[in-house]
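Researcher: I'd like a candidate sequence for this fold, 54 residues long. If you have to choose between options at a position, lean toward the conservative one.
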């Protein structure tokens, strides 16, 4: 396993096969906060996560 991400209140999960490699996008919304996690595999593995409180 390379990465294991858990987010409560996930509202959208997108898996897309892009020209430069697979992409996984997860959006989540809960009371008072929202965010997005983006996982790319090429050219390097990258996990970007935004967590915004309102």
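Model: Candidate sequence:
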């Amino acid at each position: 396993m390379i990465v294991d991400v858990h987010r409560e209140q996930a509202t959208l999960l997108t898996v897309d096969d892009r020209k430069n490699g697979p992409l996984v996008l997860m959006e989540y919304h809960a009371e008072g906060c929202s965010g997005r996690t983006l996982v790319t595999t090429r050219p390097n593995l990258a996990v970007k996560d935004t967590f915004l409180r309102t």
